[in-house]
Design a protein that fits this description.
Acts on leucine, isoleucine and valine. The chain is an alpha+beta fold and 299 residues long. The protein has 7 helices and 16 strands. The strands form 2 sheets. Strands 7, 8, 9, 10, 11, 12, 13, 14 and 15 form a 9-stranded mixed sheet that branches. A 7-stranded antiparallel sheet has the order 2-1-6-5-3-4-16. The protein is globular, with a radius of gyration of 19 Å.
Length: 299
């Protein structure tokens, strides 16, 4: 990542190096924070943030799920996001929204800990290169009966950190996690799709998978391409026997999977290619049908 000039913190832009928190911040000790990863893309009309309102609404839902009040409205957060990207002079960037319980008192109870909100943006390439090699992790995906998997919260991400480290140490690029029932859930930071006989399938939320905004984007693009998409439980072996497998996420985009464990899947298939092309056209403002997904940084 490449550091930028400013980070927005609680209503003001501060120099990157001065965006600090107290060592006794509640979220550092207990994982009481929610986050969003969003992207701004270069378009013919200038930089624009892709599906910003959807990301901010999910941030609000996540905060509500873990019982943390947000001290800013969505309109205020939208304006702050655009101001941050503009102040950093970025034509394209990754944007991290974070709301966390700050310093107030120690202990599990967080009632006396204020909510601190920050927005950072930086230039960052794609999270994964094309031709991802997936490893089925030995770590089980978080269960929604144990932690709220519907919230994009920081604490449960330790699950992803452990799975990612295991996969990298074994020589793979990414991990795919199974849930308690042995069904495919998601990767450490991306949703997964399989294609068989031209039909797409992706795990449902009850599998422990976050309802991804890029996942939803893929579904809408697929429908406009005349493709069928279903949310259904998938077995590990469904990944082995698929015609195509790809992962998707804000940081990753749409990336084809070349291997899962011992099974070689080969190069990108035609369905993945069509969707990747459609996605690139949408995020860069080259397809008028999806202009409503883009929020111009310049207003």
């Amino acid at each position: 990542m490449r550091e930028a000039e400013h980070i927005w913190m609680d209503g003001e832009l501060v120099p990157w190096a001065e965006a600090r928190v107290h060592v006794l911040t509640h979220a550092l000790h207990y994982g009481t924070a929610v986050l969003e990863g969003t992207r701004a893309f270069d378009t013919p009309a200038g930089p624009a943030v892709f599906r910003l309102d959807e990301h901010l609404r999910r941030l609000e839902r996540s905060a509500r799920i873990i019982g943390m009040p947000l001290p800013y409205t969505l309109d205020e957060l939208r304006a702050a996001t655009l101001a941050t990207v503009a102040a950093n002079g970025q034509s394209s960037c990754y944007i991290r929204h974070l709301a966390h319980r700050g310093y107030g008192e120690m202990g599990v109870a967080a009632r006396a800990c204020p909510t601190v909100v920050s927005i950072a943006s930086w230039e960052w390439g794609a999270l994964l290169d094309s031709g991802v090699r997936l490893m089925t992790s030995s770590w089980q995906r978080n269960d929604h009966r144990v932690v709220p998997t519907a919230a994009k919260a920081t604490g449960p991400y330790l699950n992803s950190v452990m799975a990612k480290a295991e996969a990298l140490q074994a020589g793979y690029d990414e991990a795919v996690l199974l849930n308690a029932a042995g069904n495919v859930s998601e990767c450490t930071g991306a949703n997964v799709f399989v294609v068989r006989d031209g039909v797409l399938a992706t795990p449902p939320p009850h599998a422990g998978a976050l309802e991804g905004i890029t996942q939803d984007t893929v579904g809408r693009l697929a429908a406009d391409l005349g493709l069928t998409v279903s949310r259904q439980d998938l077995l590990r072996t469904d990944l082995y026997t698929a015609d195509e497998v790809f992962v998707c996420g804000t940081a990753a985009g749409i990336v084809h999977v070349s291997a899962v464990d011992h099974c070689e899947l080969g190069g990108p298939g035609p369905v993945t290619g069509k969707l990747a092309d459609a996605y690139e056209a949408a995020v860069h403002g080259r397809d008028d049908r999806y202009r409503h997904w883009l929020t111009p940084v310049g207003g």
